Inverse folding.
């Protein structure tokens, strides 16, 4: 499990975790660390993403959720490696995955403003790169869900998809 306690958005919170009282703890203002499955982590990540204005119908939302889940779970997380694994699992190129994620981020103009409120941290409005967004989602997940998993293995990495249109056609040309 990736230790994201050094996440910049967790460290700079207005309400540090040490300031919580028993009353605030009992009324669910801080998530207790819980052992869950990888699917629970994904569901929590989707919950964070959708509650912060991302559009579920976009491919970029799915790719962003997968990337954020990998950020949270994988102890050896590397963004480029994770994007390549996501691209291989859906049968497309890493550039397509990056483009879809960027498109999803661009469509969600309220993300940074909403994340500022839910994190209790002032975030500059230009923090819209994929790395920044994944880091923010990771911090939100840690605060509101705080799930841990036993395994870091993503099953979809074992079964890469085949892009049939690329296998059969090359932009209208037969192979």
């Amino acid at each position: 499990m990736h230790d994201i306690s050094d996440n910049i958005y967790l460290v700079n919170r207005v309400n540090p975790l040490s300031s919580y009282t028993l009353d605030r703890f009992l009324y669910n203002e801080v998530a207790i660390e819980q052992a869950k499955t990888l699917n629970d982590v994904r569901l929590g990540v989707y919950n964070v993403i959708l509650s912060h204005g991302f559009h579920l119908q976009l491919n970029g939302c799915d790719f962003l959720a997968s990337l954020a889940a990998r950020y949270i779970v994988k102890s050896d997380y590397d963004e480029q490696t994770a994007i390549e694994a996501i691209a291989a699992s859906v049968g497309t190129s890493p550039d397509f995955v990056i483009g879809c994620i960027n498109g999803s981020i661009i469509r969600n103009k309220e993300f940074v403003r909403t994340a500022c409120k839910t994190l209790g941290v002032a975030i500059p409005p230009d923090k819209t790169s994929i790395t920044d967004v994944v880091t923010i989602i990771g911090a939100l997940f840690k605060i509101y869900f705080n799930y841990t998993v036993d395994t870091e293995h993503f099953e979809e990495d074992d079964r890469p998809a085949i892009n049939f249109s690329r296998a059969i056609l090359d932009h209208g040309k037969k192979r």
